[in-house]
């Protein structure tokens, strides 16, 4: 009888340890390998729409930095919180890299004096400046914007300035939903 209790107690401890280990591994994978997100809002239209379910590659940012035109998930630079606890995340496109000079003239971005060719930008959009029209990025800053630049559609670096590298959480690589648009972004 005592051996049965010891055996059951040992099995219970093993099961609890297995569950704890599985949770730790799941948390590490979600934080450092990949994450899932649901897009909210119109800031990335026509590329992404509200309700799109995306997967981000977080591991790629452990070994490298974002590239120009990458779609990234970023901790809200304005300090927004979800439920008052977690950092709110936003989805934006990187257009400025560390050391770049960015100008916004007549609705178009210029990077280091060269016009930025943007096939992904919403066709009818007009890029407006909200705070300034010239930014110089430091060695650890990125300039991020939504693809939908119409007035009031994207709150981005045009309003809050360049973002620090440590705010960028992952690169959006795949859309899982809606199913008819599933695939690489």
Q: Total domains, how many? A: 2
CATH architecture of the largest domain: Ribbon
CATH class of the largest domain: Mainly Beta
Low-confidence stretches: none
How many beta-strand segments?
14
How do the SSEs run, as a string of H and E? HEEHEEEEEEEEEHEEE
Report on the structure:
This protein is α+β, with helices and mostly antiparallel strands and 185 residues long. The protein has two domains: 1-32; 36-184, Umud Fragment, subunit A (Ribbon), CATH 2.10.109.10. 22% of the residues lie in helices and 32% in strands. Strand 13 and strand 14 form a beta hairpin. The longest helix has 31 residues, at 2-32. It is elongated and about 80 Å long. The chain crosses the membrane at residues 12-29. One of its GO terms (biological process) is signal peptide processing.
Brief descriptors of the model:
Signal peptidase I; 8-stranded antiparallel β-sheet; alpha+beta; signal peptidase activity; 185 residues; protease; Umud Fragment, subunit A
Topology diagram in text:
Elements lengths: L1 H31 L1 E5 L14 E5 L1 H5 L7 E5 L5 E2 L3 E2 L1 E8 L4 E5 L2 E4 L2 E2 L18 E3 L4 E5 L11 H4 L2 E2 L3 E10 L5 E2 L1
Antiparallel strand pairs: 1-2, 2-13, 3-6, 3-13, 4-5, 6-11, 7-8, 7-10, 8-9, 11-12, 13-14
Summarize the structure.
With 185 residues, the chain is an alpha+beta fold. 22% of the residues lie in helices and 32% in strands.
């Amino acid at each position: 009888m005592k051996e049965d209790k010891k055996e059951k107690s040992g099995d219970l401890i093993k099961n609890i340890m297995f569950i704890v280990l599985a949770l730790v591994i799941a948390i590490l994978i979600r934080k450092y390998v990949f994450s899932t997100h649901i897009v909210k809002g119109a800031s990335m239209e026509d590329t992404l729409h509200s309700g799109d379910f995306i997967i981000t590659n977080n591991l790629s940012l452990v070994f490298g930095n974002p590239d120009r035109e990458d779609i990234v998930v970023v901790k809200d630079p304005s300090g927004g919180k979800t439920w008052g606890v977690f950092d709110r995340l936003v989805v934006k496109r990187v257009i400025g890299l560390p050391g770049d000079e960015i100008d916004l003239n007549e609705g178009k971005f210029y990077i280091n004096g060269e016009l930025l060719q943007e096939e992904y930008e919403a066709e009818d959009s007009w890029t407006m400046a909200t705070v300034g029209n010239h930014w110089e990025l430091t060695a650890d800053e990125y300039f991020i914007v939504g693809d939908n630049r119409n007035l009031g559609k994207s709150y981005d670096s045009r309003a809050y300035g360049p973002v620090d590298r440590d705010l960028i959480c992952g690169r959006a690589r795949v859309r899982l939903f809606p199913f008819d648009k599933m695939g690489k972004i």
